[in-house]
Design goal:
It is a single chain. The chain is an all-alpha fold and 208 residues long. Helices cover 77% and strands 0% of the residues. Helix 3 packs antiparallel against helix 4. It starts with a helix and ends with a helix. The N terminus is likely disordered.
């Protein structure tokens, strides 16, 4: 090995060792920016009074999480996020809105007087989650420049061996939500049909 190569290797090693929070890499900056966009989309999702807009902003928030997983070299989890949450859950929510004939514009029913209590619970839950994650992974670092950590073989094996029951339970929950939306829409349609028939009968009797 030539002296120039040795000096270059030593410089790279020194730069890697001196890397910290005050000298972020491009991946870390991208992670922070995507996280801010995701956080903003989540805030808009829970504060907007238009249900359809809330569902669309939810797509942005879930898509941002998928990008974060990609930046953490967990490509399998990222594509699961896109296929299941963005491609299935949000579509299910939109179908539910259409089947229940939810208002397209601003909905006064979307506002709740308990917003401050909900905000307090949300902040407390977020603080507890951050504390648990930081305490659990305080000394764990991911090598973003190395081999992929969340490859399909390892993640899929762990998911379908140890987490298959919660995975199937989530599928049943989504199916129950869709069936419930269909039942509610059928009841509403039946009630409207009865009211129309009663109005027609009343009109005929009045004409007589």
């Amino acid at each position: 090995m030539t002296p120039a190569v040795s000096a270059a290797s030593a410089a790279v090693t020194t730069a890697a060792e001196s890397h910290g929070f005050l000298s972020p890499t491009g991946v870390e900056i991208a992670f922070l920016l995507v996280g801010l966009v995701t956080f903003g989309a989540a805030i808009v999702t829970v504060t907007t009074k238009q249900l359809v807009h809330a569902a669309l902003w939810l797509v942005v928030a879930l898509g941002g999480l998928a990008v974060e997983y990609l930046l953490l070299t967990a490509e399998f989890i990222a594509w699961v996020q896109v296929l299941i949450y963005v491609g299935s859950v949000v579509v299910l929510l939109l179908f539910g809105l259409m089947l229940t004939r939810a208002p397209i514009g601003r909905s006064p029913d979307a506002d709740s007087p308990n917003r401050w209590a909900a905000l307090a619970v949300a902040v407390a839950s977020a603080a507890a989650l951050v504390w648990v994650v930081v305490d659990a992974f305080r000394t764990t670092w991911i090598d973003l420049d190395g081999a992929a950590q969340g490859n399909t073989a390892v993640t899929g094996s762990v998911l379908f061996r140890h987490w298959v029951l919660p995975f199937e339970a989530l599928s049943v929950l989504l199916l129950a939500a869709l069936v419930g939306a269909i039942v509610l829409s059928r009841k509403k349609n039946a009630a409207e049909a009865d009211e129309t028939a009663a109005a027609a009968v009343t009109g005929r009797e009045g004409n007589r």
